[in-house]
Design goal:
Helix content is about 40%, strand content about 15%. It has about 150 residues and is α+β, with helices and mostly antiparallel strands.
């Protein structure tokens, strides 16, 4: 099959069974970009096969997370977001008021990760961090006073 997904190939290489339902879910994940939710995936999947449940989507996401093929993050909402590991190590700031997000370079966090390792012998899993706060437009008034 010429256009077989990288996720599908990865699962097969690991000796895992790939059901038709799982193949549809993997294709949906790869077809969506950026940070996606289980509901985003389910919306695509049910158009292809209405018999695939949201629970099946969640089980597949859990498997991919355990295999290290996707990352999971809380982007400041009650909904968990997922990104393909191939999306690369990246981080975000999220405004608590308006929800605006900004990508943050990994270089900002490398010193912290290195210090955790050297000083505390702690290996941080810091491939996809989300920092909550307030953007310039929304930050509370009392933080303006602290700037002086």
């Amino acid at each position: 099959m010429a256009g077989q997904s990288a996720l599908l190939n990865d699962l097969k290489e690991r000796g895992l069974r790939v059901t038709p339902q799982r193949a549809i879910i993997l294709e949906a994940i790869e077809g969506l970009s950026g940070h996606i939710t289980a509901e985003d995936i389910f919306g695509v999947v049910k158009e292809v096969n209405s018999y695939i449940s949201l629970a099946t989507v969640y089980r597949t996401l859990e498997l991919l997370k355990e295999l290290g093929l996707i990352t999971e993050s809380n982007m400041g909402t009650s909904t968990t977001h997922y990104a393909l590991k191939t999306h690369g190590t990246h981080h975000h700031s999220v405004c608590r008021a308006c929800g605006k997000t900004m990508d943050l370079p990994n270089s900002m966090f490398e010193p912290m990760v290195e210090r955790l390792q050297s000083e505390f012998n702690f290996v941080a899993d810091a491939n996809h961090m989300v920092i909550m706060g307030w953007c310039e437009c929304c930050r509370p008034e009392h933080t303006h006073e602290q700037d002086n």
